[in-house]
Amino acid sequence: MELQGQRALVTGATSGIGRAVARKLTEAGATVITTGRRALGGTQHVVADLGDLDDVRRLADEVGEVDVLVNNAGIFPFGPTLEQDVETYEQVFNVNVRGPYFLTAALLPKMIAKGGGSIVNISSVTARTGTPIMSVYGASKAALDSLTLSWAVEFGGHGIRVNSVAPGLTRTEKVEENLGDAIEHIVAPTPLGRAGEPEEIAEAVLFLASPRSSFLTGSIVTADGGAIAT
Amino acid sequence: MRTLENQKALVTGATSGIGRAIAVKLAEEGATVYFTGRRAELGKETVELIEKAGGTGHFIVSDIASIDDVRKLAAEVGEVDVLVNNAGIFPFSPTPEQSLEDYQRVFDVNVRGTYFLTAALAPAMVAKGKGSIVNVSSIAAVVGTPIGSVYNASKAAMDALTRSWAVEFGQAGVRVNSIAPGPIRTDAAVEGAGEMFTAITELTALKRVGEPEEIAEAVLFLASDRSSYITGTVITADGGYVAS
């Protein structure tokens, strides 16, 4: 198995894409530690809110050394710019950007000492497209993609690879709750004509986490059924 | 089960370098691999490498620059599940000194050949409701270099075809993606770039050039069902060259 003997941390893994990623990495042989705001059974889960810096620091201390870090935790409270309140704005940037930033910063020294590692940031195609109600979310994901580029350059000399997976609309519980029947309308005109499944995003994450992608760093792998090619 | 068991793949330009590594990798994963090239002797070597890896390979002598060869090739190979448009040439030149002949040849091989081969093979994929096309592009498509204007433009054109075909054939279940390699240690690249090749290493984030096998792994990912929600994308495999 391609991740045998490796330790992986997946943030925001109590549902959706994060949960599918945690499963996929486990199947590939990794020892996977998950985080989320909700408690889960098992000793490999740390309750942590990535929006809270104290939680981020405690999480890094508890987890220690990892070979694979998947920065997946993210929130998406959509809203028009003219109605955006400051609290929600702050919360999006705290969870989607500041959390992964300081978590990565805290875990990197041990990866450097080890001489290798793979970091995968779960971004979004909204980083590169305009929509009427996702300005804050899109900007936070563009910032995350930018961190991917910077970290690839900053830590590449240490054998650490950093890449993004940018999913399109993916059928998670939260997306189904928020969009319901609108999902079919949104995806009908896309080339593959369907939403993605969390497992399909997880396969792309596994590719980037594994040695199969050994010459990929600073790349953004779009997994959107062709939506932004149109 | 191997990733591409019972599938048929065509890889163009597989008598050396990245193409050869792709042909061997896809065969290793169970595909029956047809591949093309201009040099018969090297084609035989690729077949031997495929067989050594436990796979099945068939070599067809074909020059992708010739539209007759492209048509003959499509007719001979017939239906495929995976098409890798890898054949490409890179005779670099400053723009003011560019000969029309070389200009034409770059576009004939890198774009026209890819275009009409795909046009000939896509209908069978559409009829089947499934298929994966991988265009081997280059990071040259998104950067400027002093002597690569024609090559770079040809690869940008190829990436545009990737997006168009993803939209054109997506509803039929056919996925189309580009892989854009950075500096890769192939004989042609090492000879072509000379001393520059070593200098390029310092420009990548990983501080090394890539190996053909590393590009082949990315192509395998795009060719297989593991990338089932990925289409119309350009995946950069450049050791962080463009990010720097």
Number of alpha- plus pi-helical segments of chain B: 8
Spatial sequence of strands, sheet with the most strands of chain B: 3-2-1-4-5-6-7
The count of strands of chain B amounts to 7
- Strand-residue fraction of chain B? 15-25%
Strand content of chain A is: 15-25%
The rough form of chain B would be described as globular
Main beta-sheet strand count, sense and barrel state of chain A: 7 strands, parallel
State mean pLDDT of chain B (0 to 100 scale): 96
Shape of chain A: globular
Task: List the total number of helices of chain A.
Answer: 7
Oligomer: heterodimer
Spans of chain B of at least 5 consecutive residues whose pLDDT stays below 50 are none
The most extensive contact between chains is: A-B, 39 and 40 residues
What does the secondary structure layout of this molecule look like, with pairings?
The complex is a heterodimer of chains A (230) and B (244).
Chain A: E1 7-10, H1 16-27, E2 31-36, E3 45-47, H2 53-63, E4 68-71, H3 86-114, E5 117-122, H4 135-155, E6 160-167, H5 173-179, H6 182-187, H7 198-209, E7 220-223
Parallel strand pairs in A: 1-2, 1-4, 2-3, 4-5, 5-6, 6-7
Helix pairs in contact in A: 1-7, 2-3, 3-4
Chain B: E1 8-11, H1 17-28, E2 32-37, H2 40-52, E3 56-61, H3 67-77, E4 82-85, H4 100-128, E5 131-136, H5 149-170, E6 174-181, H6 187-193, H7 196-201, H8 212-223, E7 234-237
Parallel strand pairs in B: 1-2, 1-4, 2-3, 4-5, 5-6, 6-7
Helix pairs in contact in B: 1-2, 1-8, 3-4, 4-5
Main attributes of the structure:
heterodimer; A: 230 residues; alpha/beta; 43% helix; globular; B: 244 residues; 8 helices; 16% strand; Short-chain dehydrogenase (chain B); Sc_DH/Rdtase_CS (chain B); SDR (chain B); SDR_fam (chain B)
Explain what you see.
- Chain A has 230 residues and is α/β, with parallel strands linked by helices.
- Chain A is 43% helix and 15% strand.
- Chain A has seven helices and seven strands.
- Chain A has helices at residues 16-27, 53-63, 86-114, 135-155, 173-179, 182-187, 198-209; strands at 7-10, 31-36, 45-47, 68-71, 117-122, 160-167, 220-223.
- Chain A has a seven-stranded parallel beta sheet, sandwiched between helices.
- In chain A, helix 4 links the parallel strand 5 and strand 6 (160-167).
- In chain A, helix 1 packs across helix 7 (198-209) and helix 2 (53-63) runs parallel beside helix 3.
- The radius of gyration of chain A is 17 Å and the shape is globular.
- Chain A starts with 6 loop residues before the first strand and ends in a 7-residue tail after the last strand.
- Chain B is α/β, with parallel strands linked by helices and 244 residues long.
- A seven-stranded parallel beta sheet of chain B has the order 3-2-1-4-5-6-7, with helices on both faces.
- The radius of gyration of chain B is 17 Å and the shape is globular.
- Chain B starts with 7 loop residues before the first strand and ends in a 7-residue tail after the last strand.
- Classes of the chains: A alpha/beta (230), B alpha/beta (244).
- At the A-B interface, helix 4, helix 7 and strand 7 of A face helix 5, helix 8 and strand 7 of B.
